[in-house]
Write a structure and sequence with these properties.
The protein is α/β, with parallel strands linked by helices. It has one domain: Rossmann fold. It is built from 9 helices and 9 strands. A hairpin with a 4-residue loop joins strand 2 and strand 3. Helix 2 runs parallel beside helix 5. The longest helix has 22 residues.
Length: 236
């Protein structure tokens, strides 16, 4: 059985391997695991998932970070989505998390890392404002949001493959993302450093928010790295 893992960002990819992978390409981690670096967004995620199916993947995994919609979740918490809802409000069927898998993951994560099951909802764009996160939580019942998992799940459903979303919280529901993030993103959802530095130079008050986000992101990556060391137990 080959498990195909889709990651959207290079920082997420780095929690699985130190090797470089071009956007839109894939890498065999071993004879049972293959990872594809998709880039951000549903279209990129769909293409990467289809590529992994072509490489013989019989299971698809959405790997990376997410934003919290529930105020209960904090940076570094792991979300095991047992239900998925797309940006149009429709559920994607046949996504299940077994109690045995929940127990295995809990056993191998760092102390104080919490694991939550619940609805993961799709967004077509980055959700920056806390008020929008809270509205989305109220309207969908979702506990977290990302831009890729639902597209990957739909490919899995199309090919009758099993699917698992492993997403770690970066920004809590109460946090507004710094405007510098939106201003420095390119069409692929990747931060362009020159744009970021220029915006910071013009808006130095953004720096504390960026530093806080950086700390949250490092916390999330710590959880992902811990999970990566146990992939053979978690998803094989």
């Amino acid at each position: 059985m080959i498990t195909g893992i889709v990651v959207a960002l290079p920082e997420e990819l780095a929690t699985l391997t130190s090797q470089k992978v071009a956007k839109g390409d894939y890498l065999m981690l071993n004879n049972q695991l293959v990872v594809a670096y998709s880039g951000a967004g549903a279209v990129n995620a769909n293409n990467a998932a289809q590529l992994l199916v072509e490489q013989g993947a019989t299971r698809l995994v959405s790997w990376g970070c997410a934003g919290a919609l529930s105020e209960e979740l904090k940076p570094g918490d792991l979300v095991l989505a047992d239900k998925l809802k797309d940006a149009d409000g429709n559920f994607v069927d046949d996504v299940h998390v077994s109690s045995s898998l929940y127990d295995v993951i809990n056993n191998y994560l760092p102390n104080k890392t919490s694991v939550y099951t619940g609805i993961l909802v799709e967004s077509r764009d980055i959700i920056s404002l806390s008020v929008i996160k809270k509205q989305l939580h109220a309207s969908t019942g979702a506990i977290a949001v990302d831009m890729e998992s639902i597209a990957i799940a739909k490919v899995a459903k199309q090919h009758r493959l099993s699917f698992l979303a492993l997403r770690v919280i970066v920004d809590p529901a109460s946090m507004n993302l710094p405007e510098a993030i939106n201003q420095s993103l390119n069409a692929q959802g990747v931060i362009e450093l020159p744009k970021l530095l220029l915006f910071i130079a013009r808006h130095p008050l953004e720096i504390p928010g960026l530093m806080r986000l950086g700390r949250h992101f490092n916390t999330a990556k710590k959880t992902l790295r811990a999970l990566a060391t146990q992939l053979e137990y978690v998803i094989t």
